[in-house]
Amino acid sequence: MGDCIFCRIVRGEIPSARVYEDDLFVAFLDIRPVNRGHVLIVPRVHAERVTDLPEDVLARELPLAARIARAVVAATGCPDFNLFNTNGAPSGQEVFHHHLHVIPRRVGDGLRMSIAPESYGEGEAAALAGGIRKGL
Ligand code: AMP
Ligand code: ZN
Q1: H/E element holding 130?
Q2: Model-level pTM?
Q3: Which of 99, 107, 127, 128 has its CA 20 to 30 A from that of 17?
Q4: CB atoms within 10 A of CB 113
Q5: Through-space distance between the first and last CA atoms of the chain, rounded to whole angstroms
Q6: Which residues surround ligand 2, an ion (CB under 5 A)?
Q7: Angle, vertex CA 87, rays to CA 101 and CA 135, nearest 5
Q8: What is the pLDDT along the chain (136 residues), one digit of tens a residue?
Q9: Catalytic residue list contains 99
Q10: 35 Cβ inside 6 Å of ligand 1
C-alpha cells in the first residue's frame, strides 16, 4: 500500500527506532509511547486486521511477541507488559496496517482499560456460545 505509514516505515522511507527485523516483520518504538519502551510489531505485508494475515505470518507473530516482550522487560526495568492489538475503527485502530503493541507495565503507571462489564440474560450466553461454535 503506497501511502500507508507502516508500509513506508517497513520500506525505510520514514525513520523509526527499529529494534528488530526479519523476512516477515519489522519492530520499532511507538512514537507516542504509553510507557517508554512501547514497541510495535509490524508484518511487512500490508493487512488491516489480524484476521487478514496469512497463516505463516500469524504463526510467527506470537513467538516473536514473546521474545520482544522479554527484551522490553529487560531493557526498561518494567516488571510486566501488555500485548495489545486493535482491529478496525471501533476498536480504536488508527493505523490500518495490522500491528501488535508490546507495552511495558509497572504498578501505578495509570494505564487502565476499564468499563462496567455487561451481563447475560437467561439463555443468552449459551445461545451466543453456540453461535460462535457454529462459526468455527
Ligand atoms: P493503533 O491505535 O493500534 O492503530 O495504534 C497506532 C500506533 O501507531 C499509535 O500508538 C501511534 O503512536 C503509533 N504511530 C503512528 N505513527 C507512528 C510512527 N511514524 N512511528 C511510530 N509509531 C507511530
Ligand atoms: Zn501498510
Answers
A1: helix 124-134
A2: 0.95
A3: 107
A4: 7
A5: 31
A6: 1, 4, 6-7, 46, 97
A7: 125
A8: 779 999 999 999 999 999 999 999 999 999 999 999 999 999 999 999 999 999 999 999 999 999 999 999 999 999 999 999 999 999 999 999 999 999 999 999 998 877 888 999 999 999 999 999 999 9
A9: yes
A10: no
